[in-house]
Design a protein that fits this description.
The protein is 26% helix and 20% strand. It has an 8-stranded parallel barrel with strand order 1-2-3-4-5-6-8-9, surrounded by 5 helices. It has a 5-stranded antiparallel beta sheet with strand order 10-14-15-16-17, with no helix packed on it.
Length: 487
């Protein structure tokens, strides 16, 4: 995210060109089940904390004397990101000299109120110190390394996460041709390895915009980089999706698939700079619900407090109006957070390895039992015919009720047939079919008990509890008819 510069305006125009597929997001809020009113939290941060997540905002040091601004921020949020005060131009204004005064002002304000802080950002093509402009090649590479070491040494052990690298890809999935890219294609890897050595405890994130639509070239470019990093042991813990939704860039119908797919690589995901044109209630509810449905989506940050504080203020994109009043979108987000309730998140293990939770462990074999019905996922009449619809039935321990979660996220039965989605929309049949490695045969077995399709992002769902009830796909809603255990 940029400051009030021409670079920011160019970024907005670029983002507005990307037209995501508009989801039927009204279904998210319509299907959510609210807990008892006495248990519902009344602020965004408290509601998110119920499921082990955070709900944050970006803060500007220059607004900390505004009592309306600070009172909302202190009341509503439990994670803070500095808008510009921790970026390279702010922290390294002159060669060999660091300035942390503005960044520390935000850090101190947040931590004195019990909030955590995300660092943003260490390496970026924009908002670089002026003196970087005269460097190139190995000299610029060393300047980046020195900057990362200096800034992270100052905040070592203090922050929840760092956006180590920001916005390094083009829209087609290729690398952005920045001065940092010109130092060598490995510059992002060097940045992450340097950051890990500088602070072994903090989460290290890659952050970008226009990576919300799973089928978009930029999304795939970032995904392939993360997959490569994880395969080679390059230290990366999380991916930040900025989630700037404009009139031309709406909530994609496959947004949850994107989150699940990144998470399946063994990284956390976070929505880091959220704002939505006219604060569309359906989009805010949809993006929040999608995060709640993915166990490794650890939190959401909106980019600013009130509309008047936003870099897109004319679009009124935030949850509070210019006067600090809650908007309809605020209520939709709060309801979605409260509906998630306790125990729906899956924190990264304390060792920082990003290892999957036990429910995600490949090689597990057993029954898939419905939480509501107590009955098993069953292939009728022990059929092995392609296209046989899966149902619920009394558990009997037979092979037609024995499923194995493979390393490629398939759920197999009889060793050669896969659980298969016949489509990606609500009501699509769930059947068995010869294993083919396609996304409609890949499943995320989540710590909250849901089983979600990688292709669709939707949950395994049944509309009844009796023998013979057929299994389908449907928007995840947190109800017991969408929770299963593999045991």
């Amino acid at each position: 995210m940029t400051s009030g510069t021409s670079e920011r305006r160019r970024s907005w125009r670029t983002r507005a060109l990307v037209a995501g597929t508009v989801a039927a997001v009204g279904a998210f809020s319509a299907l959510m089940v609210m807990p008892d009113a006495n248990a519902a939290a009344s602020t965004l941060g408290a509601a998110a904390a119920q499921s082990g997540r955070y709900f944050g905002t970006a803060i500007a040091a220059g607004r900390l004397n505004d009592s309306t601004y600070t009172s909302i921020a202190a009341r509503e949020f439990n994670m803070i990101t500095a808008e510009n005060e921790m970026k390279p131009d702010a922290t390294s204004p002159q060669r060999g000299q660091f300035n942390f005064s503005a960044g520390d002002q935000i850090y101190n304000w947040a931590t004195q109120r019990g909030m955590k802080v995300r660092g943003h950002t260490l390496a970026w093509h924009a908002q670089q110190p002026n003196w970087w402009g005269g460097l190139s090649g190995s000299s610029l590479r060393q300047a980046m390394i020195d900057h990362i070491n200096g800034v992270m040494a100052h905040y070592r052990g203090k922050l929840a996460a760092w956006d180590v690298v920001n916005e390094a890809f083009n829209e087609d999935g290729s690398r952005r041709q920045s001065n940092l890219q010109a130092t060598g294609n490995d510059w992002i890897e060097v940045a992450f390895r340097t950051a890990r050595a500088a602070d072994p405890s903090v989460k290290l994130c890659y952050n970008d915009y226009n990576i919300e639509n799973w089928s978009y070239g930029k999304t795939q470019g970032v995904y392939n980089m993360i997959r490569d990093f994880k395969s080679r042991g390059v230290p990366i813990d999380c991916v930040g999706l900025q989630t700037h939704f404009t009139g031309g860039s709406s909530l994609p119908g496959n947004f949850q698939t994107t989150l699940s797919s990144f998470a399946a690589l063994g990284v956390d995901v976070a929505l880091t700079e959220v704002d939505v044109t006219n604060a569309a209630t359906s989009q805010y509810a949809g993006l929040t619900q999608a995060c709640m449905n993915v166990p490794r989506c650890i939190g959401i940050t909106v980019w600013g407090v009130r509309d008047s504080d936003s870099w897109r203020s004319s679009e009124r994109p935030l949850l509070f109006d210019n006067s600090g009043n809650k908007k309809a979108a605020y209520t939709s987000v709060l309801n979605a957070l409260n509906a998630a309730g306790p125990g729906t998140s899956s924190p990264t293990p304390s060792d920082g390895t990003g290892s999957p939770s036990p429910s995600d462990t490949p090689g597990r074999t057993g029954r898939i039992v419905g939480a509501q019905s107590g009955r098993c996922l069953d292939v009728p009449n022990a059929s092995q015919n392609n296209g046989t619809r899966v149902q619920l039935y009394d558990c009997n321990g037979q092979t037609n009720q024995t499923w194995t979660l493979t390393s490629s996220r398939q759920l197999t039965v009889y060793g050669s047939r896969c659980l298969d989605a016949a489509g990606s929309g609500n009501g699509s049949a769930v059947q068995i079919y010869s294993c083919n490695g396609q996304a409609n045969q890949q499943w995320n077995v989540n710590a909250n008990g849901t089983i979600t399709g990688v292709q669709s992002g939707r949950c395994l769902d049944v509309w009844g509890t009796g023998n013979g009830q057929q299994v389908q796909l449907y928007d995840c809603n947190g109800q017991a008819n969408q929770r299963f255990s593999l045991s």
